[in-house]
Each structure stands twice: as C-alpha cells, then as structure tokens.
Design a protein that fits this description.
heterotetramer, A alpha/beta, B alpha+beta, C mainly alpha, D alpha/beta, B: alpha+beta, Jelly Rolls, 14 helices, 11 strands, disordered C terminus, C: mainly alpha, MetI-like fold, 2 domains, 13 helices, about 80% helix
Chain lengths: ~300, ~450, ~350, ~325
C-alpha cells in the first residue's frame, strides 16, 4: 500500500543566474511500513525533495509542478492551517540534517517535547516524556537540560524522540547521522531500524552515504542533478547497479574490504543552466549521441527502473 | 560577482542609491557655491540685526499667497535718475516719483525710505497719494545719507499722526506700532485706523530740497515691506531663512564628513585589529571600547565646551571620539567572522605574515563596511552638531541651523505661529540626511551579504 | 558557578570602566572644574569673611585677611590644590563620586538648597519618568512592528522599515517637539505647550494626575516618533537573522503555528538582545534627549543642563554630565546582566 | 624497534604531549590532554592515517606535527638530508622556513581558501611571501601544481567562489604542493566531499607520495578511507595510540576493542544487514570530560573491561611485526 507519493514534483529556486531546477519531475513513493532510501550527492536535490514533500521549502524555493499524495490526498492543495493541524508531526515527521540545531536554544528539551504533545492535544506529563526518552535510550535527566548541554548524538536521539512523540505514520530522516561519529552513527541507525519495526512506521532515509543506506533500506532511489536516475530493491541494486552513475558512485564508496577506490571524473552540471538530454552525459563513460539530445525516461530493467539510454 | 567593479555595478542598479547620489552631488555643488559666493565674514553680518532692516520681519514665504493667504511680497523702488530743477534764490529741487498698485487686503509691514547722496540737503519731502486722492505729506528735515527712515521713525510718524488727527478729528496721544501703515493704506474717514485697506494705484513723490547742488545716488530706495519674503520667509530680525539655510550647509556637510570619516576609520581599524588578534588583548580593547561607549555624547560635549573653544575641526574630532565605539563593535564582529574561516589559519601555515593576512583577507571585507558606515555616519554627525548648536554650543562665526532654531525657540516662534522659522531649518537636517541614508543603505545592502557569506 | 563568575567578571570590568570613563570626563572638564572649585573657594571665603566681621568686630583688616586666606587654603586643600596632580586627581574624583558637586551659582532646588546634589535629586526623577515610560512604549511598539515586518519578509512593511528607521533617526527630537507644540498645543489647543503641570496645579489627586498625563503626552509622543522606527529596525534585523536558523524550520515541521513560532520561540530566543537593547535605549535616551526636555520645558536633567548653559552655571553642568555618565554605564551593565540572565547558554554555562 | 617507528623517517614524534590549559578567572584550571604521550614516525613517501572519533586528539596531533601547535612536552623532529630540525621549538626564521617543508590540507574547502580571491592570487601570495619573486618562476610553479592536482589552467583567472567544492579542495592541495613539502598533514581532506570526488583526491595524495616521496599524515574518522589512503593506520583514543600497524592488518586483524568497535560500526555495502541490528560493542559516548579515567583510558566504554584496566595503563605491545596495540588482553 502506497502511503506517501510524489508525482512529477518539480521545485525551482530563482537566482540571479536564472532558475535553479533543484528537483525536476520526480516520482517517488513510500509504502506502509517500508524503509526507503534516497541516495545522491550534494546538488542531487534529495533534501529539497524531502522539504518540498513536507511543505517546508523556504522562499524563494517553490514547487512549480506535481503533486504529493498522502493516503491519496494531495497535501500540496491543503491550506497551510489544515496541513499544519492534520498532518504536520501527527502524520508526517522529519529528522533534519540540522537537527543538532533543531531545538530552540532557550527552552529545555523536556519543555519542547511537552509543547509538541500539548499543541496536538496529547497528554504531556513528565512520565510521557521520560517514556519517550527511554525509547531512544536517553535517561530522564535529559528533559531538564538545555540543548547546548547535550552532545551531538544525544541531541539527535532526543530529536528522534520528538519526531516519534505523536506516533507519525511517516518519518523522513535527512542525513540524520552526518557530523556524528561512526559509533554514534551506528547506534542511531540501529535505533531507526528498531523503532520502525516496533512502531510500524514508514521511514524515508536520505543520505549521501551508499554504505549506510545499504545497511538500512529495502528499496532505494538514486538521484543525480535533480532527477531520479535509478530505483529498485536494495538487494538488486547493490548486486548490480544499472545506471553508469550508480555504478560510479558505488565504486567511489570506500569500503573496509577493498584497497581500491575510484572517482567519477568531472563535476556536477550547473543546475541553473542544464544541458538538454541526460545530465550525467559529460561525466558518463558510455555517453552516446542520443544522451546529449534527449532526457531518458525511467524504464523497467530487471526488477528495477533506470533512466538511461543504455537500456 | 565579486571584486571592486562589481560593487559599483551593483550600486548602479540600486535606484534609491542613484537618486541619493544625485542629491548628494547637488548638495555638494550648492555648498561649494555658498563658500565661493558669500564673503567669509558673512556670519558676522548675519548676526548683526542692523543689516537686515530692509527686509520684512517675521514674514512667511512668498509662496503662501498661492495657498490663498493674503501676504503681499515686498516692493522695492530703486535706481532711476532724479529729475532736478533749480527753484531760484539758490534753492535746488530733486525729485522722483513711484507708482505702484496695491491689491492686497492687508497693509504692508512697513515702508522704508533710504536716501543715498553726497551733500547736505535741507529736507526731503514725501507726498503719499492714495487711490482715493488723499495725500499725506511728510517732511524729513536734514535727511542723513545711509539712514533708513521707516514709518515708525519720529521723522515720518509725526506727519502721519497729524494726518490721522485730521481725518479722525480726535487727538491721538500715541499711535501704536503698525497704525502708521493703516494710516497710509486704509480708506480715509473718521474711522481711518479701522477702515479697510484701499486697493488701487498709489503715487509717491519724493522731493529733496537743498541750498547747494547735491548728488543723489540711484541707489536711494523706497521699500514697501510686504508681509512675505522669499522661499522660506524671514525671522524676527528680517533675516531671510533661505540665506541662513544656505550658509549653514557647508558647515553641516564638512562637520558631518570629518566626524564620520574620523570615527569610522578609527573605529573600524580598532575593532578590526581587536577581532583579528583576539585573546587577552582583544578583551582589553573591547573594554577600552566600552569606556568610550559609556561617555554620554551630548552632556559630555556640553561640559567640555566650557574647557576649550571649539573650532569646526575640534568639534568634529570630539564627536568622532565619542562615536567610534559603535563602528569598532561592528568591525570587530566582521573581523571575527573572517577569523573563524580556515583560510586565516591556512595563511599562517603557509608562512604568510600576519600583516599580509590582515590586508589580503580582512581589509577587503572591512573596507566596504567602512564606506557604508561612513556614509551612514554623516547624518548622525550632522544631527549631533546641530543639536549642540541648538543648545548654544557651536564654533564661533558660523551660521548653523541649530542656532537658527535656538533663536526661534527663545523667541517662541511656535507660540506666534512663525512656522517657517521652525520648519525649514529643521527640515534641512532631514533633507541633508536623506541622500546619505539612501546611498548608505544601497551600499550596506551590497556589502552585508558578502560579509556573512562563506 | 559559571553565572556567578560571569557576574563577578562583568561587575569588575564595569567598575573599572566607570573609573576610566569618569577619568576621561575629568580630563575633559579639568580647566572648568578647577575654575569652579576656585570660584567656590572665593564665594565661601566671602561668606566666611562676612561672618567673621559680624562675630568679631575687633579684628583688624590684616587678621581678617589672614584668616580668610587660611580658610580658602583649607577649602582648596580638600580638593588637593596643594598636592601633586595624581593626589589632586584622586581627591577631586572622590568628591565627584561622593556627589560633592558644590553649590549652584543660580539654580535652587525646590527645598531651597543651592547644593547641586539636591538640585539633581529634584530633577532626576522627572527625567526617569519621561524616558522610562517613553522607552517602554518604544520597546513594545517597536518589537511588535519589527516582528510583524520580519514575519512578512519582503512585504511592504518590511521594506519600508529601514527607511522609516533612518528617516526617524535623522529627525532631531527637539525639532519634532517644536512642530508638535506649534500644531497640537498652539494650533489645535489640545495639549499644554510645556511644563510638567499647570500653574497653579488643579486640586485633588486624580485631576492632578490627569493634568500631569496631559503634560506628559507631547514630549512622550515626540520621543516615541523619533525612536520607534530605529528600534523596530533593530528588532527586525535580530528576528530576521534568527528566522533563518534551523530550529525555526524544525518548529514549523512540528506543526507549531507561525505565530507561535514567532512570538514564542523566536521572540524568546532574541529576548536577551531585546532586553539589552531596551536598557541601552533607556540609558542613552537620558543623555541624548536633553533637548526634548528643553523644548517642552520638562523639569528634568536636560532642562536643568540647558538652563545652566544659558546662565553659565558650571557646577550644575559638570554634575549632570557626571550623573548621566554613571546612568549610561549602569544601563550598559544592567543590559549585559539581563542578557546573561535571559540566555540559558550563559546562565547555565 | 619501538612502537610506531619506521625506516627512513622524515618526521619523528617522540613522546609527544599537547595539553591545553584554560585557566579562567574564578574557575579551576582545566587541563585538556589532547595528545598524551604519542610516539610516531612517518617515513619518506609514506601515508600514515590517524583514525579516531572527534575528541580523540588526531587534529591536534597533526597540527603539532607540523609546528602549528607547540608541544607541551616531547619532541617533534624533521629529518632531512641528515639535518634534524626541532619542529616544536622552531621560532622566527626557522619556523618560517619550516612552512615550506611541513604543510597542511584543511577539511573544509569552502573556508580554507578565501573565496573572494582569484585562484591565481591565492597561489601566488604564498610563493611571494616565501621569497619567490621572479615572475617566470612563479607562473611556472603555479602551472606545475595545477597540472599535478588535475585542474585546467583556465581556472586560474576565476574567483575561488566560482569553483565547486571538489575544485576548491584541489586548489587547497595545489597551494600545499607549491614548495614540494617533506610532509603534509591532510586533515580530513575528503570528509566534506562528495563520494564521486573522494577517489580523485586520494589518488593525488598517493601520487605525490609515490613520485616525490612526500610523506602524509592522513587524518580521518573513516576506517574505510584510511584503508584506501594509507599504508599504516594509527587508531587514537583520548590522545593516546590504541593500536598502530599496517592498514590491511589493522582492518583485517584488529586487536584493540576500540578498533574492533570502530570497524563494526563502520558502514559497509551490505544490503543483507537491513533486517539485522548492527553490533556495537562499546558503551556510551566518547567522554567529553576533561579528566581522563585512570588506567586504560578506554576502560569505561570497553565491553571486555577487566579489573586491571581500571588501575594500570597498558603499554603498546608488538603483537605482529609492526602491529602494536595497547590492551591488557594481550
């Protein structure tokens, strides 16, 4: 059952050099109880996509096309007030890249947890708070502390506790472990996996780290320069990525089992001035004439979908 | 885009900034004109009430007539040759006539006769003929050259009083000020002094009698002081406000510029270095900034003016000494944000000297800030200086708007409704500030994002 | 622990700053201060001489002269006139800090004393009432306008605020006062043109208070008009920079309404800065708004200073400057403490 | 041979300690032992990785190694042509001269080069301040380093802010290579770069080490990157070396429980993991406390802690040739 779905979503940022197409006609879906990943490098548009789907874009960024369906309702069409009351945090919660700074610095962690609960009409007692903190392996004393008194890992966990406080159906996590040490990172990912199972929520994990994503998700999307280039079950994908970019990305990810590392030559194209055709063409070892001309649509290739003229 | 040329380019795109720049140039040209066109001792002329007797006092600007206010402007009759005729037995008679039309319903504020001649005339005889045919004859015995005879002078008023007595049939002990003009302009009859003003053509003939030939200068004049003057009116002494405003302009600009440049340059260098070196020395420099920040500018300057005679430069430097801390605080935060960048550390690792680092990384960011705040600081300096002038503290022999306003305040201009005396000098402070603000804001907008950007 | 350290460090640093600031002031007024002291010595000497003559009719002119000279020398010695400069400096500073400003040449306190300290004590409360009330109004209105402007960033209000701010800040307050008097007092006859109450004041507490309010309105309005724009601008900038922080976005994601984010999360976060700004505003308005009092004949320190300038009453001028310096520094100090109290990052280390 | 030593060393750290003492008014003096008795040698053309969590002291150690931070005790020596320079005590001219021999690559390419300068100027200024005045030599040197980091000459006229992160990091490396230094500390040079660009940067470092014999201290928190980039890995914990040895050995056969935990926690491409919980055999977070625990500094988090660990400090022991660990288990 599809829970959350973006259809043909396009997001642009007007700049002095022209419109930057941060997200260009992206289709993405998240099923019930599913753990889905979005992988890609900086400039791929993955964070923008997530913010766009949760109506959190800051102006001047704006959605120019497409719809976002939650249980079949286009949530982009709702009024701000409706969406705020009925969806934000109660159904759709998010853990941000900057969640380290996600707490208002002048209130204690406990009071911020209570505020969210109370605002949405839940019970906001001390015991609820300590139970919440317990689910993310934090002890009760955290509640009376200010954000600046916590370590990065503690803040991230406390924020996850806050994200789960209203038992949302979807949890979007955007680089939840960047800037954390590996050991903390592993515990956070473990926590996400455990909570998904225990609470039966759907999780969308956005990260640049293919290794991290491989250990967590069931299905993943790979984005490049604002578009999805490949989508499929993670087993299939990691066994044999189809898109040349996916292949390059995988070989450039350092692993403990190999002494070798490769890079992808060249750089990301200018998003304000995109060439026609496939955006990966200038860096692609298999580039053909057609690639320069036409943008490849997503096609089914052996259980996966790939946007490449090779298939 | 970055670099110096792009700052200019961006600035030229700001409409407000360009308008400000144009206004600024206009003010500059105007003040250069003032400096060149008026003698350097003009301030002492300004401060001498005698020099302004020919002007109507307390007159609103002439353009109020356009708003339907009945405030006739002054009429001045000057020049023209004197017709002369010998009247036998060694008597000489020189004469001149003036004709003017009076259409206003109010009398003029005064009439002033200013004979200019060489020799010793016996008397001057003025025949004032009203539109209804009545004439008043005024004899001035032994007129003096370079004197101004106005309607309230004994020489003139006694004849008017006689006329009043003749018309009203009552003996006038004293005639209060202004009633001379009623006599000269109102319709005749027993109620002369309360009759309406006669509109129509007035003839004034002046004869000068002498026993020996004299030379009457064409610069002799008869002025009918109106009830309005110039673009901005006059004050209690008849000084034109517009002149005061012009004379005050170079002072205001110069003081503002010197103050701002001194304060901003010192403040930015001080704050910039403070932020750059950091540590204990930074702490001390911050404390030093606080010490000056805590000096209350206005009272301090007042108190200090009792110890030293102010000149324009010393006043400007004193104001600067009290305002640099604000700029030091801003510059320090800019320097800190630069310092937090790894390229400062990288320079050290490269063996590049601290001095060079300061110039390659800090100055390019501090300079635009300096320029923007210098521009924004000028109106602040002007305002403070004018406020001091209002309190009676200003370098001697300088005309200031604050000083003009001080006089307006002392003379209770607001109570008497002499609004032009209050409005224009004050407005000038705002007007002069405006272009600086427009330019400064345009600059600030260009500069600030670059400071904060990584 | 940390907050106590913060307190002690700040207190020491401001105390030392106070001495330093006053020293600068001292250098600036040195010549006039010496003149004042000598004048006082002469005046007191004359009084002493008269009382001497009255009390001891048998004294010779020479004896009187000697005694008066000795009296003057003792008087001057209190101010270190026979001492090297550093001691003189210390003694005179001590006299300033203990509010021994001497006696005024012309002004009298309502209780008839000509001691400058009593005169100041009589005038200072009026200044405090006017500008504290004024600043409270400015802070309230400025904060609301600033917050609203920051909320609708890029909107009409937002774009016009900088211009209003600077236009206002280049308005001389006293001039605005002038215009207000001309219009509201003399043209419309709505408010009295100046003073703190009618002469004679109305009978009864309530009418008297009403009369006071009536007199307060115009100076308050002039002060408000000139200052509110700048304050709103400061708040707008503060709020604006805070609105870009991560926690604002996450608060929005949490389903907290925009108003609540603005008026609770953002406002509380910038509140330390607002508090500092407000206190600084009060303190500096005391010093900067002399002229408002002058124009409205409001019997506070400003008017006192102005009248003293007109009558060359130096002791009073020196004293008001000294008092205003202390007030300003005290304001800066309180502002910093307020920041410390309101910001948990300082309060709890 | 003692722990951490190597043949033909360029740089020797001997019992290096860097303590930061902050004594603030009214507060107890706080001593942070960022580096606590580390001995390490880096050989000519060798890349040694320092691995550890934030707070492990790896950056401080790197900075002390090139003289940017003064050691509290211990010795840092640069060995070149049989000449030894005491880096820790160098001052004035000697120190400035060292800037040509010992260099550093910074983590953040966006802040380590002034974005408002032209690329050419950012390379020219270091050369000039080291006394290279001849215009021809300046431009030859600049062309050479641009080639070595794989950037086209056309970029020289651009402003730094017009460059992408990957390009900027290459400029950062080019600046470092200007003087062909003897040793370069690369402080997390790839951690802020996109995956597709990491390989190229590592390759540039490898090539410089191989072709010019430049030694590198490669600081990273990522075991996988360390393996790819370095011949030897030193794992740091709270300012001390927990384990040091050849990269392959440390990763394939780790001895220290902390190394094991780091390796367990490191993500690998392993889609089969998605239904399992990752084993992380440490407790709690890295103590940010300033007081180091007595005994083994790792014992409060160690899953295999023994009584002895709480009181006695373990020495580094050679457990395989060139592979040392400090743990009471061995």
């Amino acid at each position: 059952m599809t829970l959350l779905e973006a259809k043909g979503l396009s997001i642009v940022f007007p700049t002095s050099r022209g419109e930057v197409k941060a997200v260009d006609q992206v289709d993405i879906s998240l099923g019930e109880r599913e753990f889905v990943g979005i992988a890609g490098e900086s400039g791929a548009g993955k964070s923008t996509l997530a913010l766009g789907m949760l109506r959190l874009l800051t102006p001047p960024g704006k959605v120019v096309a497409g719809e976002v369906l939650f249980h079949g309702t286009d949530i982009l069409k709702l009024t701000d007030e409706q969406f705020r009351k009925d969806y934000r945090w109660t159904k759709l919660a998010m853990v941000f890249q900057g969640s380290m700074n996600g707490f208002t610095p002048v209130f204690t962690i406990g009071s911020q947890l209570k505020e969210v609960l109370a605002l949405h009409g839940r019970e906001a007692s001390d015991s609820t708070i300590s139970k919440l903190l317990e689910t993310v392996d934090l002890d009760n004393s955290i509640a009376s502390r200010y954000p600046h008194e916590l370590s990065g890992g503690q803040k991230q966990r406390a924020f996850i506790a806050m994200a789960l406080s209203l038992e949302p159906e979807v949890l979007v996590t955007d680089e939840p472990t960047t800037a954390l040490d590996v050991i903390t990172q592993a515990t956070i990912i473990n926590l996400l996996k455990r909570l998904r199972k225990e609470l039966g929520i759907s999780v969308l994990l956005i990260t640049h780290d293919l290794a991290l994503i491989s250990e967590a998700v069931e299905r993943l999307y790979v984005m490049y320069a604002g578009g999805v280039v490949e989508e499929g079950p993670s087993i299939d994908f990691f066994a044999k990525p189809k898109h040349p970019y996916s292949q390059g990305l995988l070989t450039s990810t350092p692993t403990l089992t190999s002494n070798e590392i490769k890079g992808i030559p060249g750089f990301l194209p200018d998003l304000a001035n995109l060439p026609p055709g496939c955006r990966f063409t200038p860096r692609c070892p298999f580039a053909m004439e057609v690639c320069k001309r036409d943008y490849p649509p997503l096609k089914g290739v052996g259980g996966e979908r790939v946007a490449c003229w090779l298939y | 885009m970055s670099g110096k040329s792009s700052y200019l380019e961006e600035f030229s795109k700001s409409k407000a900034g360009m308008i400000g720049l144009a206004l600024l140039l206009f003010l500059l040209v105007l003040s250069v004109y003032v400096v060149l066109a008026y003698p350097s001792n003009i301030a002492s002329t300004w401060n001498n009430p005698e020099s302004w007797q020919g002007n109507p006092a307390k007159a609103p600007p002439t353009w109020v007539t356009l708003l339907g206010v009945d405030a006739p402007p002054s009429l001045e009759f000057k020049g023209g040759q004197w017709a002369n005729a010998s009247v036998g037995s060694g008597n000489y008679n020189y004469s001149q006539s003036y004709t003017f039309k009076w259409t206003s319903k109010v009398t003029p504020s005064n009439i002033v006769f200013s004979p200019r001649f060489s020799g010793t005339p016996l008397e001057a005889e003025m025949t004032w003929s009203k539109p209804d045919g009545q004439s008043i004859v005024i004899y001035i015995a032994s007129p003096q050259t370079n004197s101004n005879y106005d309607a309230t002078d004994q020489d003139i008023s006694q004849w008017i009083h006689q006329f009043v007595e003749a018309q009203t049939g009552t003996l006038q002990g004293t005639v209060t000020f202004g009633e001379e003009l009623d006599a000269l302009f109102d319709a005749d009859g027993p109620n002369l002094l309360s009759n309406p003003v006669l509109q129509g053509t007035y003839h004034v003939r002046i004869d000068v009698l002498s026993r020996s030939p004299i030379a009457l200068s064409p610069s002799s004049s008869l002025t009918v002081d109106g009830r309005s003057y110039g673009i901005m009116g006059t004050d209690l002494y008849g000084r034109p406000i517009q002149l005061g405003i012009l004379l005050g302009l170079p002072y205001a600009l110069e003081l503002g510029a010197v103050t701002s440049v001194a304060a901003v340059v010192f403040g930015v260098v001080f704050g910039g270095i403070s932020g750059y070196i950091g540590g204990r020395r930074d702490g001390f420099m911050q404390w030093f900034t606080l010490v000056f920040l805590a000096l209350p500018a206005l009272p301090f300057l007042v108190a200090i003016s009792y110890s030293f005679t102010l000149s324009l430069i010393s006043e400007a430097l004193l104001i600067a000494a009290l305002s640099w801390p604000f700029y030091a605080i801003i510059a320090r935060s800019v320097a800190l944000s630069v310092k937090s960048q790894a390229y400062v550390e990288a320079d050290r690792a490269m063996g590049i000297s601290a001095f060079r680092t300061f110039f390659t990384h800090f100055m390019p960011r501090l300079t635009p800030v300096t320029i923007a705040y210098t521009v924004l600081g000028i109106p602040a300096g002007i305002l403070l200086a004018q406020t001091l002038a209002f309190l009676g503290i200003a370098p001697p022999n300088i005309v200031t708007w604050g000083g003009i306003l001080d006089e307006a305040f002392v003379q209770e201009a607001a109570l008497f409704g002499w609004w032009w005396w209050v409005f224009f000098p004050g407005m000038m402070i705002v007007v002069v500030a405006t272009p600086f603000v427009l330019v400064g804001f345009a600059l600030d907008k260009i500069v600030s994002p670059k400071v904060s950007a990584k | 622990m940390t907050f106590r350290r913060f307190l002690v460090v700040k207190t020491i640093s401001y105390a030392v700053a106070l001495v330093a600031t006053v020293s600068i002031l001292y250098v600036g007024i040195y010549p006039s201060l010496q003149r004042v002291i000598k004048d006082q010595a002469t005046a007191e000497g004359q009084q002493f001489q008269q009382s001497l003559v009255r009390a001891h009719a048998n004294l010779t002119q020479k004896q009187i002269g000697q005694q008066v000279a000795a009296f003057k020398a003792t008087f001057l010695a209190q101010f270190g006139f026979n001492q090297p400069l550093p001691v003189k400096f210390a003694l005179q500073l001590q006299n300033l800090f203990t509010f021994h400003f001497g006696s005024s040449y012309f002004t009298l306190a309502p209780n008839g004393s000509n001691q400058v300290s009593s005169i100041i004590a009589a005038y200072l409360p009026n200044t405090i009432v006017l500008f504290t009330t004024g600043t409270i109004l400015v802070v309230l209105a400025g904060s609301i306008v600033g917050l609203l402007a920051a909320r609708s960033a890029g909107g009409k209000l937002d774009r016009s605020i900088p211009f209003i701010a600077v236009f206002h800040s280049s308005l001389p307050t006293w001039w605005v006062g002038f215009l207000f008097i001309a219009f509201f007092a003399y043209t419309l006859n709505l408010f009295p043109s100046g003073g703190i109450n009618s002469v004679p004041p109305p009978v009864g507490l309530v009418p008297r208070f009403g009369d006071f309010l009536l007199h307060l309105t115009l100076p308050l309005a002039a002060f408000f008009v000139v200052n509110v724009g700048g304050f709103a601008y400061v708040i707008r900038s503060l709020v604006f920079s805070t609105m870009g922080e991560d926690f604002v976005l996450t608060a929005k994601a949490r389903g907290i309404s925009n108003n609540r984010i603005l008026f609770r999360h953002v406002l509380r976060t910038v509140s330390p800065s607002i508090a500092t700004q407000s206190i600084l505003n009060v303190a500096s308005s005391f010093a900067g708004a002399i002229t408002v009092e002058v124009v409205f004949r409001w019997p506070g320190l400003g008017l006192l200073t102005y009248d003293s300038i007109l009558s060359n009453d130096l002791p009073v001028i020196i004293a008001t400057t000294f008092i205003l310096t202390i007030v300003l520094l005290l304001g800066l100090y309180l502002g910093e403490l307020c920041y410390g109290v309101l910001d948990p990052r300082i309060r709890s280390g | 041979m003692p722990a951490g030593s190597t043949n033909d060393p360029v740089l020797k750290l001997e019992d290096l300690c860097v303590f930061f003492t902050s004594k603030r008014f009214m507060e107890k003096a706080v001593v942070v032992k960022a580096v606590d008795g580390v001995s390490l040698e880096v050989g000519r053309g060798e890349v040694v990785a320092l691995v550890g969590e934030s707070g492990s002291g790896k950056t401080t150690m790197g900075r002390a190694a090139i003289g940017l931070t003064a050691p509290t005790s211990g010795k840092v020596t640069l060995v070149e042509n049989d000449l030894e320079v005491d880096v820790g005590k160098a001052k004035g001219k000697t120190w400035k001269g060292l800037r040509k021999r010992l260099q550093i690559i910074f983590q953040d390419p966006f802040s380590s080069i002034d974005p408002n300068m032209r690329v050419y100027d950012s390379l020219k200024i270091p050369l000039q301040s080291q006394g290279v005045k001849d215009a021809g030599e300046v431009s030859r040197t600049i062309d050479d380093v641009m080639r070595r980091v794989g950037l086209p000459k056309e970029l020289l006229d651009n402003y730094v802010f017009q460059l992408s992160g990957g390009q900027r990091q290459r400029i950062g490396i080019a600046r470092v290579l200007l003087f062909n230094p003897a040793l370069v500390v690369a402080d997390e040079p790839v951690s802020m770069l996109d995956a597709s660009l990491k390989g190229d940067i590592i390759h540039i470092i490898e090539k410089e080490a191989k072709e010019r014999g430049t030694a590198f201290i490669f600081i990273t928190h990522d075991m996988a990157v360390a393996r790819v980039a370095a011949q030897r890995i030193a794992v740091l914990y709270l300012g001390k070396v927990a384990e040091i040895g050849p990269s392959d050995r440390v990763i394939e056969n780790p001895y220290h429980p902390y190394t094991k935990a780091l390796l367990q926690a490191s993500p690998t491409i392993e889609p089969g993991m998605r239904d399992k919980t990752k084993e992380v055999n440490v407790r709690g977070d890295l103590a940010i406390s300033t007081e180091h625990p007595p005994g083994c500094v790792f014992h409060p988090r160690c899953p295999l802690v023994m009584d002895r660990c709480k009181t006695d400090v373990p020495e580094l022991k050679e457990l395989e040739p060139g592979h040392w660990a400090s743990c009471w288990l061995y």
